[in-house]
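BUG-58 | component: ligand-complex export | severity: low

The export step for zinc ion jobs runs without errors, but we want the raw record kept on the ticket for reference. Input record follows.
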Amino acid sequence: MLLRKALELMEKYSNCPDCGSDRLGNGKGTLNIDEDGFIRTCNCGFSIKINSKGEMQK
Ligand SMILES: [Zn+2]
């Protein structure tokens, strides 16, 4: 995915929209970016996947 888009998403989802946590790693949450898209999860159960076109995936 485009770096610009990735940075935009990182900024938007650095804090979990559900619980506000900014913790990553150690089972607290994950943030993954690769050519296929962006995935942010949180240990509160929040999870979002956005593809390389910026579309939210189920
Ligand atoms: Zn959360």
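Assignee comment: Attached the raw record above. The helical segments are 3-13.
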